[in-house]
Design goal:
Elements: H1 8-17, E1 22-26, E2 37-46, E3 53-57, E4 66-69, H2 74-87, E5 93-96, E6 109-114, H3 115-121, E7 127-130, H4 131-139, E8 143-150, H5 156-169, H6 173-179, H7 187-194, E9 196-198, H8 201-214
Length: about 220
């Protein structure tokens, strides 16, 4: 295997073009890919607070008028829009985020931030709305952010081995944390409490509900 690293949105382009055979994809893009299917029992999910996918604001949700959308992940964008419409029952102006958009989150302007950048901002804003936590509150279901996807059939022995590799990797979280100092957030807590990896039935129910809402 050759391992390619990129932003989630870029990985979808690689899978679509054939530059990648499988990819860990944001789930919002899966219905747009011809022949796409989830090929592993493992992915990236949360059952409640995820910490790294949040809407940040200096005012409460009722006072937000416009929202910058993080360009890195289509799923986080669609989740924010879905919750704003169906959970918070608000209409806002959605704005594409420039590179340094975090600097512009002020007053009635909020922003969706994901990943490491979100973890670094958790204590810098008056209001932090964790999108996975609010999805759980709205639907009662967990949320899958990303799953391993292929657009063609793969050999069964490869899929079996790939699942075994994912399971094996999860036995080394302590080593990963030790090798990657991160002063902004407790990565041990993040990788073992915030993030869940096994995509069992309830998570697939949450994914189906999400796809229905964004269809």
């Amino acid at each position: 295997m050759d391992l390619l690293l990129d932003y989630p949105a870029e990985l979808a382009k690689k899978l679509r073009s054939g530059a990648a055979d499988i990819a860990l994809l944001p789930v919002a893009v899966i219905p747009t890919l011809t022949g796409a299917r989830i090929i592993s029992d493992y992915g990236i999910a949360a059952d409640g607070k995820v910490a790294s996918v949040c809407l940040f604001s200096q005012v409460p949700i009722e006072e937000i008028r416009e929202v910058y959308l993080d360009y890195q992940s289509r799923t986080s964008v669609r989740l924010a829009q879905t919750l704003m419409e169906h959970h918070w029952l608000r209409e806002v102006i959605w704005k594409p985020a420039p590179e340094n958009y975090i600097e512009y989150i002020n007053g009635a302007t909020a922003g969706v931030i994901i990943g490491d950048r979100a973890l670094k901002q958790l204590h810098n804003f008056e209001y932090v709305y964790d999108l996975a936590e609010h999805w759980k509150s709205y639907t009662g279901l967990p949320f899958i952010f990303a799953a391993w996807v292929a657009c063609r059939d793969l050999p069964e022995d490869f899929i079996t081995g790939f699942n075994e590799a994912n399971a094996s990797g999860l036995q080394h979280i302590n080593e990963v944390v030790a090798e990657n100092p991160f002063p902004y957030y407790d990565l041990q807590h993040y990788y073992t409490r915030n993030i869940q990896y096994l995509l069992e039935t309830e998570k697939h129910k949450g994914l189906k509900r999400f796809w229905e809402l964004i269809a």
